[in-house]
Amino acid sequence: xxxxxxxxxxxxxxVGKPVIKGTRLAxxxxxxLFAQGWSIDEVLRNYPGITVADIQACFAYASASLKAEKVYxxxx
Length: 76
Prior knowledge:
This protein is mainly alpha-helical. It has helices spanning about 25-35, 40-45, 50-70; strands spanning about 5-10, 20.
């Protein structure tokens, strides 16, 4: 899954948060629905403008972001 095909970051849309292309649905929002226990069918039923591939792209974006995260030890 190439998330860049379906996720966009534009400073003029939702203050630059990553969103599903052609929508104002933030990746954060979609991931949060799953964290609250929603199923894929519930998300698709409530947001008919998105697809399973869009949802997969949200997870791929989240995964890439977490993999890129760095933690640095600051010694006193």
